[in-house]
Automatic annotation (TrEMBL):
Organism: Sphingomonas olei
Pfam families linked to this entry: Acetyltransf_6
Residue ranges occupied by any BioF2-like acetyltransferase domain in the UniProt entry: 157-285
Name the record gives this protein: FemAB family PEP-CTERM system-associated protein
Origin superkingdom: Bacteria
Length: 342
């Protein structure tokens, strides 16, 4: 048994806060086959800087060698309560590697009433949910022609039509951040969701392997997506379109162009992200030839757990009302609310 900053644990595993060990943590993450970009220190630090929620990293060691990692974000919100989340504002996270039991125990000991793990093994005694969310990922095809054939017939026809439209596709970084944010803010307002702080996007662009792909019509952005790239996988993460995008098939053009862009970057897989089971976004991704795989999230709570799922009936009135807000007002107020969602 070994004693550490977060207490004694069995099996000669020491769990401690890893402060100032970014390079060591990122080296562990990049070498692990189950890692995601949300395990990287850059993700947690982008959330910390962009949303003001404290990040921390618990590591498990055996004989001085790192064997496990748990990135955490301390979510504190007057509207949604407090929780430790792995990983904050992400669709993945959870324990990476070994040491699930001591890492989970150390997280519980940090004083938050609830701990949420998005992926990874489920600690003994924790509740788990495998029915709320689906993940969508598959290999990229060899070229555009093969990619079209990988898309089911009905959606393939929509993509082909988008390729004949007078749409311009551009890619870049921070120089595209302004128009990306305008498109994304309108898109989520139309869905009844508060937009995230703009700084979250700029921090992610600065700290992670990422870029923006934007589709313009007559010189104006109508669809845009900020994507992450990690270990050969493209993650289109924050994407959306204006009201005009649907008729223009700009979203179809955007994702097909992103697949080609990802191949050019050397990616072999495309992770379309998660969607709530039984929703329109889940059906959209299935229409592209992606099969939904249940995602397992784990939770421990000391009392009532926080609830941030927008499909919860108690939020229905709020969602309907948010859709009707003037866009400037929604963009102004949204970040104050969304920084506590995580």
């Amino acid at each position: 048994m070994v004693s550490g900053a977060l207490g004694a644990v069995a099996d000669r595993v020491l769990v401690r806060d890893a402060v100032g060990e970014d390079e060591r943590i990122d080296a562990f993450v990049r070498a692990h086959p189950n890692a995601t970009p949300f395990h990287l220190t850059g993700w947690t630090k982008a959330v910390e800087a962009g949303c003001g929620q404290r990040g921390r990293f618990l590591i498990a060691e055996r004989d001085g060698v790192m064997i496990g990692l748990l990135p955490l974000t301390e979510m504190r919100s007057p509207l949604f309560g407090k929780a430790l989340v792995s990983a904050g504002f992400a669709v993945g996270g959870g324990v990476l590697g070994e040491g699930t039991r001591p890492l989970a125990a150390a997280a519980r000991a940090l004083g938050c009433p609830s701990v949420e793990l998005r992926g990874g093994p489920v600690p003994d005694g924790w509740s788990s949910d495998s029915s709320s969310y689906l993940g969508f990922a598959r290999p990229l095809a060899a070229d555009d022609d093969a990619e079209l054939l990988a898309i089911p017939r009905k959606q393939r026809a929509e993509v082909r039509k988008s390729l004949t439209s007078d749409l311009e596709v551009v890619t870049g970084g921070a120089e595209l951040a302004g128009e990306h944010y305008r498109v994304y803010a309108e898109s989520v307002r139309n869905l009844g969701t508060p937009v995230f702080p703009r700084r979250l996007f700029t921090e992610a662009l600065a700290r992670l392997d990422s870029d923006i792909l934007t589709v313009r019509w007559q010189g104006r952005a109508v669809a845009s997506v900020l994507s992450l790239y990690f270990n050969g996988v493209a993650y289109p993460f924050w994407g959306g379109g204006t009201v005009a995008a649907r008729a223009l098939r700009a979203n179809d053009r955007m994702y097909f162009a992103l697949m080609a862009h990802a191949r050019a970057r050397g990616c072999t897989h495309f992770d379309f992200g998660r969607s709530k089971t039984g929703t329109g976004p889940a059906a959209f991704k299935k229409n592209w030839g992606f099969e939904g795989v249940p995602l397992t999230y784990a939770r421990w709570s000391d009392g009532p757990a926080r609830e941030v799922n927008p499909l919860n009936p108690k939020y229905a009135l709020m969602v309907r009302g948010w859709k009707k807000l003037p866009l400037p007002l929604a963009t102004l107020v949204g970040p104050w609310i969304s920084r506590g969602l995580g």
